[in-house]
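Worked problem 6 (solution included).
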Amino acid sequence: MTTPPAAPSSTPSSAPDQPARRWWHTVFPPAPSTIASPTLAAPVAVSFRQEAPQPLLVPAKGDAFDFRLYAVYVWTAHRMTFEELRFRAEGYLTWACGILREQAVELARRHEPHRSHELEQALNAHLSGQRWPRQGTAPSFTAQVRVSPDERVRERLRPYWEDRIKLECDHELQKVRARQADDLTRRWCAVLQNLEGDPVTMHAARLTGEQFAEVFRRYVAERRETVPELVELLREAVRGHNDLNMGPSEYTQAWDAALRTFERQHGLVERG
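Solution. The predicted structure is:
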């Protein structure tokens, strides 16, 4: 018995499909691919911050002293690596310092040698928004500065600032003392006024200390020294009306009542 030949493979061949696909495409052309072609990315900006190793010297008003400019340059470039930008910035540093000095000299000569802070503000305002070079594709920089006075000027300013600091500190200290004295005075005033009307206060005051008791005694004595003059005036007013035989008028009675009330309040009632 013979074995039948193997049946052809059931896996379809791709060859017959190609002519059909080509024929179909001739009638209905395929749509263009929807995959977007890669676009060129915008050039990335690279920046490098560079501090000048040495200060620039520019003359102050009068040309007797110099200002010291401590500059910081910020370099920017496109289509350049950071390492390349740093290398080129280091090569351009002398040129950048020259531009900065040209921008600063005229302003510096308008300021007195001890006005470094004012020059710093004016110069940074002048440099703000400016960039060098202004055109082209080469790396460009902006600048910002810190200004310091001449060392000789600093030495002359030192005694002035030492005295000013001392005066301001003393002034603040006196203000603190004044506030404390005012608070203490108000508190003691309230205490003394409360104690004055109590008959046992002279003895109770000793509980807080002999010094306070002595101060309180003097306070009460001085307060009472001014009272007899007023009492004598009231007495004379009452006597005067009686001498004139005016009788116990309402006016005389009012004076007498005021006198007696005042004497009782201040412990001046005469004992018989």
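Discussion: The longest strand covers residues 66-78.
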